[in-house]
Amino acid sequence: EEEEEEELSETKKLLKKVKKAGTAGAVSYALWELAFWGISLPVCVVGYQRVTGHWPDLTKKEDMEKVGAEAFAFVNFARLAVPLRIGLALSTTGWIDENVVQKFKKDDGEGESD
């Protein structure tokens, strides 16, 4: 339990760093989250099919139980991967700021006169 609290506080510290990075930090974190979930969910579904030999049929109780067990395991993995995803977001914040955020800021101010 103490280890879980320590992990949670470490995650909170990392998320504070993302917030301090401002818009670039938020965009970077959102993109890494989108990539993580966009890749991992299809992998889980295909993994289910490979292990069971069929696609999940949510009208069958047995398949629902198997999907539930897989979802439980995956959510625990996803929770453990949060610091990694935050680290990736922090590592790409500079690039996101330079190549995405600053370009939008320049576009917003082009039509203004002093």
Looking at this protein, list some descriptive labels:
114 residues; mainly alpha; 4 helices; 0% strand; elongated
Q: Could you characterize what this model shows?
A:
- By secondary structure, the protein is mainly alpha-helical.
- It has helices at residues 2-20, 22-52, 61-80, 82-109.
- α1 (2-20) crosses α2 (22-52), α1 packs parallel to α4 (82-109) and α2 packs across α4 (82-109).
- The mean pLDDT is 87.
Beta-strand percentage range: under 5%
pLDDT averaged residue by residue: 87
Q: What spatial form do the alpha-carbon principal axes imply?
A: elongated
Number of strands: 0
Number of helices: 4
Q: Radius of gyration, rounded? A: 20 Å
Q: Regions with pLDDT < 50 over 5+ consecutive residues? A: none
- The CA-CA distance between the termini, in Å, is 58 Å
Element-level helix/strand string: HHHH
Q: Kindly state the percentage of residues in helix.
A: over 70%
Structure classification = mainly alpha
Largest sheet: none
Briefly say what this structure is.
The protein has helices spanning 2-20, 22-52, 61-80, 82-109.
Chain-wise SSE layout:
Layout: H1 2-20, H2 22-52, H3 61-80, H4 82-109
Helix pairs in contact: 1-2, 1-4, 2-4
